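Why do we care about 3D structure at all? Because function follows from shape, and shape follows, mostly, from sequence. That is the central idea of this module. The next example makes it concrete: a single protein chain, its amino acid sequence, and then its structure expressed as tokens.
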Amino acid sequence: MASPFKLRMRSALLLRRIFSRRFLKFGTVGASGTVVNIGVLYLAQEFLFNTVQTPEVRLNLSLALAIFLATLNNFSWNRLWTWVDRKHYLQVSWLAQFGQYALACSLSIVLQIVFTNLLAPHFYYQIANLIAIGVTSVLNFLLNDIWTFGRTRLMGAARQRSR
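And the structure:
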């Protein structure tokens, strides 16, 4: 069992990682993805899929394209800027890494929906959604920091070099 001191140290390290410069970059990339998402959604709805007669089908096609391109935008910028210092991840194929990224984002999206629905009876729905976005953004960052961009692989490689 971990001592209270060790738990505080682990918590402090986790908080330092969350509120780091890298997290600010991650948030900036996320904001750019939001702009891409909104822009593509508008262009697809108004121009690209405007000949689709059923409004629901048009919206779903537009949403699918907007979400895909925003996710691709975010993955690319996170790879090129947020986690640029972790060159070891280049050993993982781009497609496999994008799959990890998309899976991490999917989990965050599902949790955002769940948290928004849980909080909406207690808060104005947009406030509930902002709280859910904040919580899931931290989770999304940690999943990508640890799994997609290989913090665990980086630490494992460092341990092996020190042996």
